[in-house]
Amino acid sequence: MEIVAYLLAVLIGISLGMIGSGGSILTVPILVYLLDIDPILATAYSLFIVGLTSLVGGVTQTIHRQVDYRMVFLFGVPSIIMVLITRGYLVPLIPEHILSVGEFELTKGALIMLLFAGIMLLASISMIRTKDCSLQENHTLDYQQIIIKGGFLGLVTGMVGAGGGFLIIPALVLFGGMPMKKAVGTSLLIIAFNSLIGFVGFIEIDGHQVDWKLLFIFSLAAILGILIGTLIAKRVSGQRLKTIFGWFVLGMGLLILVEEIFNI
Length: 264
Hints:
single chain; mainly alpha; 10 helices; about 5% strand
């Protein structure tokens, strides 16, 4: 299962490199179901893996001048603040055993995975239905929407370990007036900062023992994938890839939802 997990890690990187999102959507289920890692810990591990991988991709995109630093700041600052608030105060408030009725018991880990499945379903619908919005690039910047989206992104990142590329890219294109390729590069840097800061906050606040060997091997595989994905993205239509990936995410989200409901 470890070998399969590391091979799938390459797919995580390819997804990030090609469409600037999808990393966390794949990482958490792989860690939970293939490597048998606790869902709460898996969300933190996902932050490190996706954060480090996105940082490499973001640096690569910076070299190719596909990053808007102003948007990294406008979107990233409120997002980072919400990540720290969520990991430091909101997640610890959730009890380990939330609800128990007869044989039915809803645990903290199950709730996190159910939330994650819900986000996957919403993300998949967005990926399948959203058309290429590059024609929006001349629109006026909507700073209020960008800041609000940034804060919501931080909440999602802190709660379920999702970097939130599926939220960032539509916001950058629709409210930031950014071409798709530049949105992907900018998204990677925002994801990197959000995720890595969230992971540091997790270590400082929760004090868990971290399996660094697993994290670095998994991350190296994902980094290989993001380099491959960046090369493929230059040759294949991003819209077509986004639609295919959306259907894949939809299937995975439904599987997780069924798995958690029957295991509760």
